[in-house]
């Protein structure tokens, strides 16, 4: 049975080309039906040209407007009532699709999702989560990475519960460890938010809470889930992206520097490609917006066709795992003593 996923066809920096190609890849390799949302007069001829008569479960849903990266999120959400984001998210709210994916304006996507889908019971603020690679080969889920610039201890408790559920249900972690991002491991380290939050997380999660973790712990596999406010998380994420680009370009230049290095590069091409894939955001799909009443995943603006395909995959996986239902159950059953029944 195919899973219906809505794709904002006008989201990415080079839309709709990556979205069209990504939708075709997804329908070839995944059990999904993709609903492309955008102006029909633009999408129909472009899609037909790509398909060349191939029959795939791709449908076009008309939306006369779209929100660009240059648009101010709050203003665009209010004024563009027939945007591809709003039309797509309405399909999720009405039960016509299992989830929504966009590589568009992050602020607009979050605002539209909160307005159209509403929040889960018990969650004051949604959180944007992202997956980071680690030395152990296991993923680390970091949240929040930008949905909330300012947070309170209660919000970070919600983030911890939502992150733990997502990690266990989608990433399939066991005995999930949760850390609080700070500037030192000691309980006394950090700002007022982390110092107030730490004992509350310890009471809530019990042995699953490993205390404060530092920036380097995001990649060494010490924690399965790391929570922080959206300002800190976004800085950490953007710093990581910049470092990956620097490291990749430096390594590429070094491998081209001498004839010996070029021969070595040829011999190690398979290992180098594996390394690149491990750090490539396109392999991880999108970042789920946790805490809204429906499945909404947000991808990178520069997403290529493979990133779009993986974004569709992640959206389908979150929908199949019933993450929202699990989060609501965990919030109801958490009693402050580490006893969280999922």
Any idea of the CATH topology of the largest domain?
A: Isopropylmalate Dehydrogenase
Largest sheet: 11 strands, mixed
**Average predicted local confidence, pLDDT:** 89
Structural class: alpha/beta
Tell me the span between the first and last alpha carbons: 26 Å
Helix content: 40-55%
Strand proportion, as a percent range, falls in: 5-15%
Number of domains: 2
Q: How do the SSEs run, as a string of H and E? A: EHEHEHHEHEEHEHEEHHHEEHH
Strand order across the largest sheet? 3-2-1-4-11-10-5-6-9-7-8
Query: So how many helices?
Result: 12
| Low-confidence runs | none
| Oligomeric category | single chain
Q: What Rg do the Cα atoms give?
A: 21 Å
Instruction: Provide the CATH architecture of the largest domain.
Output: 3-Layer(aba) Sandwich
Please give the CATH class of the largest domain.
Answer: Alpha Beta
Q: How many beta-strand runs?
A: 11
**Gross morphology:** globular
Enzyme class: transferase
Subcellular location: Cytoplasm
Protein name: Phosphate acyltransferase
GO molecular function, one term: phosphate:acyl-[acyl carrier protein] acyltransferase activity
Account of the 3D structure:
With 342 residues, this protein is α/β, with parallel strands linked by helices. The chain has two domains: 3-123 and 291-321, Isopropylmalate Dehydrogenase; 132-250, 3-Layer(aba) Sandwich (Isopropylmalate Dehydrogenase), CATH 3.40.718.10. It has helices at residues 17-29, 40-51, 73-79, 84-93, 106-117, 153-169, 192-205, 230-255, 259-267, 269-279, 305-320, 323-333; strands at residues 3-8, 32-38, 58-62, 99-102, 127-132, 140-143, 178-181, 209-213, 225-227, 287-290, 296-298. Strands 3-2-1-4-11-10-5-6-9-7-8 form an eleven-stranded mixed beta sheet, sandwiched between helices. Helix 1 (17-29) packs across helix 2 (40-51), helix 1 packs across helix 11 and helix 3 (73-79) crosses helix 5. The radius of gyration is 21 Å and the shape is globular. 47% of the residues are buried.
């Amino acid at each position: 049975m195919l899973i219906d996923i809505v794709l904002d066809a006008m989201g990415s920096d080079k839309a709709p080309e990556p979205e069209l190609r990504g939708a075709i890849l997804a329908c070839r390799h995944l059990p999904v039906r993709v609903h492309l949302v955008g102006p029909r007069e633009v999408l129909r001829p472009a899609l037909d040209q790509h398909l060349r008569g191939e029959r795939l479960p791709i449908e076009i849903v008309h939306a006369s407007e779209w929100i660009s990266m240059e648009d101010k999120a709050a203003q665009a959400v209010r004024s563009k009532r027939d945007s591809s984001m709003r039309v797509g998210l309405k399909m999720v709210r009405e039960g016509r699709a299992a989830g929504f994916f966009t590589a568009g304006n992050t602020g607009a996507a979050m605002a539209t999702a909160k307005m159209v889908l509403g929040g889960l019971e018990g969650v004051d603020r949604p959180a944007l989560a992202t997956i980071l690679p680690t030395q152990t080969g296991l993923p680390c889920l970091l949240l929040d990475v930008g949905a909330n610039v300012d947070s309170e201890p209660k919000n970070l408790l919600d983030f911890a519960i939502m992150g733990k559920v997502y990690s266990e249900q989608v990433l399939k972690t066991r005995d999930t460890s949760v850390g609080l991002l700070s500037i030192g491991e000691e309980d006394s380290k950090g700002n007022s938010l982390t110092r107030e939050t730490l004992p509350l997380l310890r009471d809530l999660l019990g042995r699953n809470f490993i205390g404060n973790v530092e920036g380097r712990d995001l990649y060494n596999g010490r924690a399965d889930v790391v929570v922080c406010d959206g300002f800190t998380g976004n800085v950490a994420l953007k710093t990581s992206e910049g470092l990956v680009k620097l490291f990749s370009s430096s390594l590429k230049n070094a491998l081209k520097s001498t004839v010996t290095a070029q021969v070595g590069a040829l011999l190690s091409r398979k290992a180098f490609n594996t390394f690149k894939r491990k750090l490539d955001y396109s392999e991880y799909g999108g970042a789920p917006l946790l805490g809204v009443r429906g499945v909404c995943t947000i991808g990178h603006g520069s997403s290529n066709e493979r990133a779009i395909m993986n974004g569709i995959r992640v959206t389908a996986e979150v929908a199949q795992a019933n993450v929202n239902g699990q989060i609501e159950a965990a919030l109801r059953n958490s009693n402050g003593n580490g006893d969280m029944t999922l």
